[in-house]
Write a structure and sequence with these properties.
Radius of gyration: 26 Å
Bound molecules: zinc ion
Largest sheet: 4 strands, mixed
CATH superfamily of the largest domain: DnaJ domain
CATH class of the largest domain: Mainly Alpha
Number of helices: 10
Strand order of the largest sheet: 6-7-11-10
Number of domains: 3
Mean pLDDT: 83
CATH architecture of the largest domain: Orthogonal Bundle
CATH topology of the largest domain: Helix Hairpins
């Protein structure tokens, strides 16, 4: 498998779609071949950034990648239920893939058998008449900080497996065939649902919509689990539930100290003091200035001027002579 696209772009797995786009644009500019002529390493990097963005750059593609990841996690790490949910959508009449939808409520041993011999397992399944359940579906939903404070209704395009209209699920687990569902008993259908996001929603909050997951021909439907992601806007990001705001400071202020103005997520302008000999990456916590009255962590970065005038260049040359 190719490199993890989240790692290539350097974004957390719970980054919003908008954040992924911003980071991609920034990196693409930085490593663009026009900007790095003859630099093979930069070109490679540029290509891998493009490839990563192809995988998670749109909400649809990203959903598919995330769901595939979950199915692989179920088999891969020895703890198939650590990230329980299944949730991928079948792409065409691949029975093994279809059956990965029905992992809900089954133990690991069965899942592993199931992977290696999906067809045989299917006949065994009829014999074991245990409670069966459609799998849960996990999905991400991006909303703005402002909407999260007051709550909002979001129209959500929802694809899930529903019991087959043609055979009503009756062909599942039998030797009969159904041209509609290929005897899986279910088919993928799409609908628009409205998701109510409560006021004061936080990044990473999960909403569980009972029985809105994949349906099962012989059992209860799974749930739809929605991971709320708050778009923290340009220059801000979430880190383990903390809102981080990057503040670009001029080189001289970082070294000598000084006062700067920043704009908080609540659109307030506040002044902060930069202590002398600060470092890039230093952080300060501002209580009450983050999302919904929570803390805001500001992180110092360095302001990189796009253009310099002659006077500034002369001054910098002078500093260089002095060993700075
Ligand atoms: Zn059918």
């Amino acid at each position: 498998m190719a490199d993890n696209p989240y790692a290539v772009l350097g974004v957390p797995k719970d980054a919003t779609n908008a954040e992924i786009k911003r980071v991609y644009r920034k990196l693409a500019r930085q490593y663009h071949p026009d900007r790095n002529p003859g630099d093979a390493a930069a070109e490679e990097k540029f290509k891998s950034i493009q490839a990563a963005y192809d995988i998670i750059g749109t909400a649809e593609a990203r959903k598919e990648f995330d769901n595939q990841g979950r199915v692989q996690d179920m088999f891969g790490d020895g703890n198939p239920f650590s990230n329980f949910g299944g949730g991928g959508f079948p792409r065409g009449p691949d029975i093994g893939d279809m059956f990965s939808q029905f992992m809900g409520g089954r133990n690991q041993q069965q899942n592993q058998n199931f992977r290696s011999k999906p067809r045989e397992k299917r006949t065994q399944r009829q014999a074991t008449n245990e409670s069966q359940k459609g799998s849960d579906i996990e999905s991400g939903l991006d909303i703005t900080l402002e909407d999260a404070v007051v709550g909002t209704d979001i129209q959500f395009n929802h694809r899930r497996l529903k019991v087959c209209k043609k055979c009503n699920g009756s062909t599942f687990g039998t030797t009969k065939n159904c041209s509609e569902c290929n005897a899986s008993g279910v088919s993928t259908r799409e609908s628009t649902i409205t998701v109510k996001v409560p006021p004061g929603a936080i990044h990473g909050q999960q909403l569980r919509l009972n029985k809105m997951g994949n349906e099962h021909p012989n059992g209860e439907p799974g749930d739809l689990i929605i991971n709320i992601r708050l778009d923290a806007d340009e220059g801000r990001r979430w880190e383990n539930g903390r809102l981080i705001q990057e503040v670009a400071i001029s080189y001289t202020t970082i070294i000598l100290g000084g006062k700067i103005q920043i704009k908080t997520p609540n659109n307030e302008r506040i002044q902060i003091v930069v202590p002398p000999r600060s470092k890039i990456g230093d952080r300060r916590r501002l209580n009450g200035h983050g999302h919904d009255g929570g803390p805001l962590d500001i992180e110092f970065s360095i302001l990189e001027p796009e253009k310099l005038n002659k006077k500034q260049i002369a001054a910098l040359e002078k500093l260089k002579e002095l060993g700075l």
